[in-house]
Amino acid sequence: MKSEEFKLPEGWKWVKLGEVGNIVTGSTPPTENTNYYGDKYPFISPDDIENSKYIYQTKKKLSEEGFKIQRKILPRSICVVCIGSTIGKVAMTTTVCSTNQQINTIIPDYKICIPEALYYLVCFYIRNPLQIEAGLQVVPIVNKSKFSQIKIPLPPLPEQQKIAEILETVDNTIEKTEKIIEKYKRIKQGLMQELLTKGIDENWQIRSEETHKFKEDSPLGRIPEEWEIMRLGEVIEIYDKLRIPLDSEYRTTIKGDIPYCGATGVIDYINDYIFNGEYVLIAEDGGRFNRFEESVYIMRGKFWANNHVHVVKGREKVLENLFLKYYIDYEDISYYISGSTREKLNQQLLKNILIPLLPLPEQQRIAEVLSQIDEVIEKEENYKRKLESLKRGLMESLLTGKVRVNKLL
Questions:
Q1: Strands (E), 82-127
Q2: Which listed CATH number (1.10.287.1120, 1.10.540.10, 1.25.40.10, 3.65.10.10) goes with 156-214+368-399?
Q3: What whole-number distance in Å separates Cα of residue 284 and Cα of residue 238?
Q4: 18: helix, strand or coil
Q5: H-type helices in 12-77, by residue range?
Q6: Residue 253 is inside which H or E element, if any?
Q7: What are the residues whose beta carbons fall under 8 Å from the beta carbon of 113, sequence distance 6 or more?
Q8: How far is 405 from 409, CA to CA, in rounded Å?
Q9: Could you count the other beta carbons within 10 Å of the beta carbon of residue 92?
Q10: What is the mean pLDDT of each run of 10 residues along the chain (409 residues)?
């Protein structure tokens, strides 16, 4: 949204960023002096500003000596990336720190603005004017002088406080939900480590040395005595010959509600299909192939697939599709990858992947346990998406004055 596109509510005013606080542009201490770098003071770069409101961790820190030659940033200041492809990223500081020269920081004047309210206003209004200003430069950059002149609307202090409280409540709930998701993902990884190396017996107990025998010399290391080792090509059916890539321009002419699948998931929806049923899709290129990086997904029903993803099924009564998905997600298959510039898991290499072959009922038990964790994770991720949608709606309403909070004061 451009700065003066709309009439402000009564009591609001347009202000320049330079009027709401002190603007500080960071710098980088000389890297040849190793005494400047240490473990005491956070040194913020654009990579440290992610999708969260606060900057809790930085990849680099400065020593006492290095911090002395830097411009000091106070807690509750607003950092804005003002150069490069991530221009417009915003986050708040939590401690005394400094930044590099790619970041302009607003140290708020508390007599004029509530820092948390200023953070939300900057997030909502900053990206468009930054991109416009950066687009006028040969190198996309907005210096301190230009940055200071950008205008945002500012409500009265009591209204700022109430807006900040409402949006912080949603942000805090989103943060709690993210922590729940991360907790269940860690639980899932721990379960995968146990289940896919020890298995689960008919009593739904993970095998142990006290109750079961293991063999130590298999190509996959220590595994239960009942398990065999097979190559993937021996236990799957491959349907890659049926794949047909469709370019994005053509897909615009056949829009529908049938998934069009690529290396790591659904990338579009069209009105036709090649496959109908349950299949396992494994990234051929453009995927993530290290342990726990989830380069595999299941498709059920009608879908189309391009040539960047293998389409396979476990052989009937031999390999459960869901077990196959979980095992490839668990295993580090980077060993099988070819190509130096673009990693590729071609069909021959796919066939060579080693996989433990368990009795089918045991595969089903393992898949059931892990799918229950996945259901919880999916439920929490859906809840997070709803919260994020709620937040976007609240920001649109509250930060433009379409909905006033002054009656709540």
A1: 90-92, 98-99, 103-108
A2: 1.10.287.1120
A3: 13
A4: helix
A5: 64-68
A6: none
A7: 20, 21, 154, 157, 160
A8: 7
A9: 23
A10: 68 96 94 86 94 92 94 96 91 96 97 97 92 77 93 96 96 96 96 94 89 88 92 96 96 97 95 97 86 89 96 96 95 79 85 94 96 96 97 95 79
Rounded to a whole number, what is the largest CA-CA distance in the chain? Answer: 77
Superfamily of domain 228-357: DNA methylase specificity domains (3.90.220.20)
Are 264 and 310 a contacting pair, CB within 8 Å?
A: no
How far, in Å, CA of 360 to CA of 181, rounded?
30
What three-state secondary structure class fits 217? strand
Task: List every span in the chain annotated with CATH 1.10.287.1120.
Answer: 156-214+368-399
Strand order through the sheet with 21-25: 21-25, 103-108, 78-81, 90-92
Q: Residue 232, Cβ neighbours under 10 Å: how many?
A: 23
| Cα distance between residue 205 and residue 199, in whole Å | 8
30: exposed, middle or buried (C-beta count within 10 Å: 0-12, 13-18, 19+)?
exposed
Pick from 199, 207, 191, 206: nearest CA to 376 = 191
Q: Which helix (H) or strand (E) holds 151?
A: strand 151-154
Residues of the chain with CATH 3.90.220.20: 13-155, 228-357
Does domain 13-155 sit in CATH 3.40.50.970? Answer: no
pTM of the entire structure? 0.84
